[in-house]
Model the fold of this input.
Amino acid sequence: MQWADKQARDRNASSFLSLHEAGREAIVAQAEAMGTKTMPGMFFYQTLKDARQFYYEHAASWPGVGFPHAPQPLGFPDYAEAPD
Amino acid sequence: MAYALSRQKWRVLVLEAGPRFDPSKDFKLHSDAWEKQGFPHKAGSEGRHAFAALQELDPELNDLYSWNSVDGRLNRTPHRRPYKYNHVLGLGGSTLAFTGESHRMHPESMQMRSRYGVAADWPMTYDALEPYYCEAERLVGVAGPSDPGARWRSEPYPLPAHPLGYASRRIADGASALGIKWGPNARAALSQPYDGRPHCNYCSNCNRGCPRTDKGSVDVTFLRKAEASGHCTIRTGITVTRIEAGADDRVTGVHVVNSAGENEFIATPKLIVSCGAVETPRLLLASANQHAPNGLANESGQVGLNFMETLAWTTSALHPENLGSFRGLPSDSISWDFNAPDAIEGVVGGCRFTTGMSEAALNGPIAYAQRIVGGWGRSHRVAMREAFGRILSVGAIGESLPNRGSYIDLDPSEVDTNGIALARIHSQLDDADIKRLSFMRTTARAILEEAGCNKVVEEYGSYDFFSSTHVFGTCRMGTDPETSVVDSFGKSFRWQNLHIMDASIFPSSGGGESPSLTIEALGLRAAAHMAT
Done:
């Protein structure tokens, strides 16, 4: 976060969290572009991996991708038909 | 064998190293965490084993490297890497996590030495095994097609085949366009209620454990009936550390560590070892004594040799239509066109192709996000919405033949918690394996292309990773005590009351057939012989 805050200050903001969404995304993209051999890049990729897992292990995220429900107890008895 | 012998009123004691699973409680496919947890291992259900260094990879074989859309190449080292020997310690063993394909061997695959000069012949014919295949299918409740193909049948499958899924029909269409016959697979998943168990509801997750018990794992079929006979006792959490053998060519019992951590000796008039092709040779080799200095039942020197693994390939691609491909019965359809030992041009040993989305674990949002879609933020969410449910996968498993570089021995340095040396897996792919893999990859890609897929997103195979579920051959059966470990009924040639019954006794692997039904048929046949 120190690195991210420094990038924010270079953009004349007080901290990373004080930036608007586009500004925060620009710094995140900067970390991504640095690759896994740098500390910001390593942090980015590990955090992204964790975030994907945490996000999609919650049922609240499933409607957003078209996954209807956990596999049981209902199963998918409509499996031979075109999806809704 | 516990089922067949207890039915004949033999007193049977089953010693299981792992725990007993309660399907309705332990297999949590109803929970939000279903995808993250994979197969829900319990304490004591994961064994340990070691790997010897695996072979160097050939950069020229770039096409056979495993990769996915998010991470790129998955093995960036110059060597083949061990991923996993997929083995479950628990009552029911690896059938708890198996897909449940119920295959009979191709008759010609049982005569690899006499017909093709490789591996070894089975000491019985398909015809001798056929009645026991039928019995096993009835006990499990196998649902299969009416067309027997190359495997003649004396009776139909007990249950009708499952209708193909919507996504699978796209793959069938793709195969058909190439002139490849594609049809229903024989499955240990109930297409109708049967024997007190409900029918499958197509949740697509056999490999994470079936909470409904419609999947015919050994715990809910053979062992359930064995316990109900009143003649079979099951003890779980019992690790056999050594088989005790005397001077009179008979074993006397087993040394175990029980669930309380105490040492016990359990005497038995007859011992059947069924630990699989990695752990069975380990136990025999670890049981060396003054009467058997090279390991028990190892008079031929063959214990641990002839190791055969799962030679596998899966290609996954995106289809432009939303297919809802996370639904359905895993491996519901199959092509046997290339399964005969001479079916692949230029190489001995066949293979088979199946639908493979579930086995590739591409049936949930986490897998899509981590392996296929990638990215982050709003664009990631849009891409996930566009991709989810559109993946088609074609999986293939091919013949694995014995070679000098593939065997199991005792690791010289690593031991388990009881001080017993771990099994060490040596695996080597030879040129024929690589040709088969190459054929599997090319054909899988062609099928998906004809199915209408427009982008390959992941490929995973045995070239750069050892990842095996089906393992064979390390205590091969035969007719000659000089070259095999047990006879056709699994009995040691020397040790008169020692039997082996698992896929370690297979003289050849078959052209991708899943082995569980054949193990069951061999066990029923051996038990019938033993009882007479």
